[in-house]
Amino acid sequence: MEVKLFVGNLSYETSEEDLRTLFAQAGAVASVALIKDRDTGRSKGFAFIEMTTEAEAQKAISLYSGYKINDRDLTVNLARPREERGGYQSRLSTGRELNRNASKPRPDQGSYRGKLSAFGNGSGPTGPRRRGGSQRY
């Protein structure tokens, strides 16, 4: 079973081939994914590396955690599963139903007209409301 590693604190100049060559010394590398900014194409400074066995992954962690490459100390850990991100699409995909009745008053709230009656009958400082044009007589 392949084991995914998180490699952080990478220099922007580090390439996927550099990482593949380095981690191949710890064992067989199944894949290397250097994460890049989608707009600029520049590295974000971290990568995910899949090692073929658990033992090789542990060896890579012990060898390269704190290892200096391009004047930077690497951070190497087992990758955690991706967490659900908040947002509209994630709510739809998890099956949680959106509250479509949010704007409707609950039965115990009564109507909004009853609440406004305490403020008068709808006439303002300029007199009663009129329908139609904006002219006032």
Q: Reading side by side through the largest sheet, how are the strands ordered?
A: 2-3-1-6
CATH class of the domain at 3-78: Alpha Beta
Report the total helices. 4
Gross CATH architecture of the domain at 3-78: 2-Layer Sandwich
The overall pLDDT average reads: 80
- Overall radius of gyration: 30 Å
Fill in the CATH topology of the domain at 3-78.
Answer: Alpha-Beta Plaits
Q: What is the CATH superfamily of the domain at 3-78?
A: RRM (RNA recognition motif) domain
End-to-end separation in angstroms reads 84 Å
Shape: elongated
User: Strand portion, in percent?
Assistant: 15-25%
Structure characteristics:
alpha+beta; Alpha-Beta Plaits; 4-stranded antiparallel beta sheet; two-stranded antiparallel ribbon; 22% helix; 23% strand
